[in-house]
Specification:
410 residues; alpha+beta; nine-stranded mixed sheet; seven-stranded mixed sheet; 13 helices; 42% helix; globular
Amino acid sequence: MSALAASASELPADAVSQQTGIRGWSRICVSSEVGELEADWRLLEATGLTTPYQAYDWIRPFIETVGRASAMSFRFVRICDGEGKALALLPLVITRRHGTRFAEFIGGKHANYHMGIYRPDFAEALDADMTRLLLSEIGAAIGGIDAFVFVNQPTHWQGIHNPTARLAAGASPSPAYKLALQPNDCDGTLRRSMSKHARKKLTTKRNRFAEFGPSELVQAQDEPTVERVLDAFLAQKAARFAQLRLPDPFADPAIRAFLRQAALGSPGRPPVVELYSLDLDGLSVATYVGAVQGSRFSGMATSFDLDTAAARTSPGELLLVELIKRKCRDGLTMFDLGVGEARYKTTICDDRDDLVDTFLPLTGKGRAYAGFSRFKRALKRRIKASPLALKASLRVLGWLRRRPGNAPED
């Protein structure tokens, strides 16, 4: 099923032409079928602004696994010029919460970056007022939504301002950490980003790890290896969350199905999601999941085996450094470690992407929900800025999650 909405269908033809010239778009099309947009999507993805998490081969497996299992309601917004050519695509999911129906970007907490896909010149032309007008027309075209809720949006992408980030209510609770790669100069990249003390500690860990036997960094590129690495990753994650007495977000079978499908990829195309394992004597002691788009690799999740003696040597960190070197040799120019604070991220990365949240209400109910969401995200940001408050909140959150019938959102 699909729906089509003309942005200015009630205006005279000459007024439509004048207004289109000012705002840069002519028509908004809304579809609930991702396959209808594949050709435009792949063209925009190849030439425009997009993160790995809005790549067609990331979104489609997510829809067919996690989306289907959770009965999610998707809307794919295509913004066109006067000739019918795609200027932008917004992959959205309609969420109902607290009696409010709002649109957000697909992927939830499994996507580190949330934004649309834009032709660069169109993104550059959109100021805050035009972006607000565009979103209001998208809301009307979708119909029946109370607000847009866009979190963890990069303020810029490839040096161009992210249009919906212009309407930000404030910074996201956490930034995303990244490292610019110097192609074919892996050691130079790490010397630039890591302190001398950190590099020395890494060498010590590597030497201790080598005492346990021969090791190899393996990329899962065929079905048996994908299955093996996924088994290791999910088992390691389950053990870690059990140790923390927290629910395991990877326990849902649909998540495994998504990672499996995305890692195997489409026929004739390289997969967007890549799985890696650091094997020690043929057994996985650490794993890494990442998404790749263009010249950027984006870390999604990492894990390591708690029960192996080699765990004391930080095998996850050793895997990551070897993966950075591999991507450097492959000619990639950016490696990010995703959203959230962690010691290893600040040790390895020397830069970050600032992320912001946008809450745009369309109705009275939407204004109430947007206000509540702004308050909650601001509170989370303040808590994360205080180590004592963060420790206390994690204890309370863990207690609430362990109580029967309780599943806090954040």
